Amino acid sequence: MKTASRHILALMSLLVTTSRNALAAPGAWDQTYTLAVSSGPVYAMGLQTDGKLLVGGAFSAVDSSSSRYHLARLFSDGSLDPSGSGVSSTVWSLAV
Fold it and tell me: Which residues contact 43 (CB under 8 A, 6 or more apart)?
């Protein structure tokens, strides 16, 4: 009986720990992610049907390593899509 109780307690402990540390559901807001843009704010964002995110504003770089003037596209995992180099003026809004 003591062995069974220990197994049940161990299982319950594992379930509580797992549920507390579980990843957010698909489409949920990941509060740990921050987009690093340089030299200006983000004014607009739009989600494409393929899961990529368009980001527009008055910035000059994304993730401090790539020049992306005013417009950038991110993959669904948050990494920068290397295609494109931005646009010549501030992006105030996006329609996807």
Answer: 56, 57, 58, 90, 91, 92, 93
